[in-house]
Amino acid sequence: MRGYARKAGDDEERWGIAGLLHDFDWEICPTPEDHPNFGAQILREHGYPEDMVRAVLTHGDHTGIPRESLMEHTLFAVDELSGFIRAVALVRPSKSLEDVTPR
Ligand SMILES: [Fe+2]
Fold it and tell me: CA-CA-CA-CA torsion for 63, 1, 30, 83, nearest 10 degrees?
């Protein structure tokens, strides 16, 4: 997220934090009915900027909230990409991300 923010000339901290926080409620609300709406509510209560809250909300298609900003589209893509990279690691004998090297 930080790299894409840099490439877009946007705020690396905001994008990076949105990426880090987007699933923070998953362990307490692992259902589409609650996640990420529960987390977004907590972020709002703690004063997080609305663009970050929207990025968290729009990473889930099931919320029905359309992605509009570049940060929202990027968070959705990076979420999928990081899952793919994790899957690549898990099919290696070590199952370690350290053994996944870009070519
Ligand atoms: Fe999620």
Answer: 110
